[in-house]
Amino acid sequence: MNELLTVQEVADFLRTTSTTIYRWLKNGKLQGVKIGKEWRISRVALCGFGFDFNEDIKASPKVWEALSQKEHLLGIASSRKLVFELEASFFNYAFSRGNFLFKGCWWQERDEVLEAYARWGFDAESLVKEGLLEIADLSRAYAKEGIAGPLNLWNNAAHKTDKILWASGAPTINCCNSRGDLISFEARLNQLIKDNRVVGICPYAEEDLGGDCCAALVSLMAHHSGTVLISERGQVLLRRENGVTL
């Protein structure tokens, strides 16, 4: 059923204000219908809306500076290409602050990661050789041990250094055998990060969220301390549990 949502419900879901939603409806960025004097937005329109609302908010170039240890972010990029850009930016900042880096791969291949990061100006290959960046195959670990496999790799990386660990894994909705497994993994990873000195991000590509992207996002957001969004225009927006937007 294509449920109709109120302006406030959409604002709450997107963690923005009703004023912003009214502006998007007025300028056509978000499609809605008027019932009497009130706007209504369908779930289909909301899912199709994607994340282009980033362009309405000028992102701070210091987005990563707002992060502290024990932070678990949900990343949303409008394409897989931008997942690499988001991670390269994240790691570039982390390395500049002297942190240890961990990259977990679900759908990405090691060589693909190194090449893509290099295109975005981050020399990951040199850091791997110097032992400052670890790249691990989370998909293979999951195939062998279930969610315990990738969790162990994150945990081992966190205890390998006395520095703060900055880590990224890029899952998809279908990277585990079931949606329940994925949510369990994210929930346990969230606790692991809270128990250690870790800044972690799990970026998803919009194209991988599937037809029920709204439900998927709501489930995932419950197990993260904030959300980072990146659009095709390269703009980045950070929203956190406390409502702070950069």
Question: What this model shows, in words?
Answer:
The chain is of the alpha/beta class. The strands form 2 sheets. A 7-stranded mixed sheet has the order 6-5-7-8-4-9-10, sandwiched between helices. A 3-stranded antiparallel sheet has the order 1-3-2. It is globular and about 65 Å long. The longest helix has 17 residues, at 80-96. The protein is built from 10 helices and 10 strands. The model is unreliable at 50-61 and 242-246 (pLDDT under 50). The two termini are 35 Å apart. It has 2 domains: 4-49; 63-240, Rossmann fold. This is DNA binding domain-containing protein, excisionase family. Residues 72-217 form the MEDS domain.
Features:
single chain, 246 residues, alpha/beta, Rossmann fold, 2 domains, 3-stranded antiparallel sheet, 10 helices, 10 strands, 42% helix, disordered C terminus
